[in-house]
Amino acid sequence: MHKNPICLTALIITVFCGCNEITEPANPIDKNATPETVALFQNLMKISENHVLFGHQHATEYGQGWYGDDDRSDVKSVTGSHPAVIGIDFMHLSNRSREEIETEKERLRKNVVDTYNRGGITTATWHFHNPVSEGRFYWVDSVSVAAVQHIIPGGYAHEDYKVILADIADWAHSIRGEDGTLIPIIFRPFHEFDGDWFWWGKAHTSREDFVSLWQFTVSFLRDSLNVNNFLYAFSPDNRFETEEEFLERYPGDEWVDMLGMDNYGDLGRDRYDLETASQKLMIVSDYAKKVQKLAAFTETGLESIPDTTWWTNTLLEILKTEGMRMSYVLVWRNDVNSPTHYYAPFPGQVSAPNFIEFYNDPFTIFENDLKEIDVYRFNSL
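RE: above sequence
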């Protein structure tokens, strides 16, 4: 299933001509970023003026009732196209044996390379296993240790943290497309830090230590390990109402490429409050425009999607808020085994017909649309 060619032509024209003012293009925070990384940053900014890319976590790794099938996603099974943005996770790049880490590097590398070769975009989150205690990434009162203070410079586990980052850097240097290009990705560490459920959450570390962790992580990857194909995304949960609250743990404009937020609660999980969801996203969008950063709706969704019009009447309604610019929206994963833990439709799921409407709307961009738009090249829009 493909979008109407007229819509694709209009998409290309509106992206190219969407901005009346002529301004100097913004750039990533890495002054040595690869040309493709700079192009991705600038093209996502252009696209966000008139469109939004659709993303899905773990889309091509597994889905409802399947795992590891080649060139498959539940989204593609419904629409004929993979998502434009595909989420992966660095979860298993630490707290594993050396053999398991190397196997995971190769598995993730193949996923990213395949996505790039098709024209798609990868974003990496990091459900980072607690590096100094048991308890995985979630905080568990009986076993978890507040690790941030111990892995920042001066902490007793700082050198151990540098080893973990070196593995991420080694992987980042290995992801090359069939054209030989080092592939850019959007790296989103320490997400939802304003909540208390992760060991890096607000209840378990000071603002100063969190900022130190963020700045060291970026600096060590970028400046010491020469990772020049990452864009860095900052994404709290929805626990803010003002720009000041949104920026409470912000490490500074020189340390962030993308401003985002995660919000499930206002979109049906806890309540339907589209006005509040829009207001919060506008805070993100407005600040990003002010400081020439990308903005994205980095996580959202409605588990099991029982609402048959959720895609157009909730999600698309919010994303079309006047003046809002979001480069992409990403919904969470479809579990392999659970009959209820999924956030994108699959064939036969009750919201699938409405999701096709969402797909066909000229405002949304999926991977098939990116065949007409090379987001990794300058002047491609």
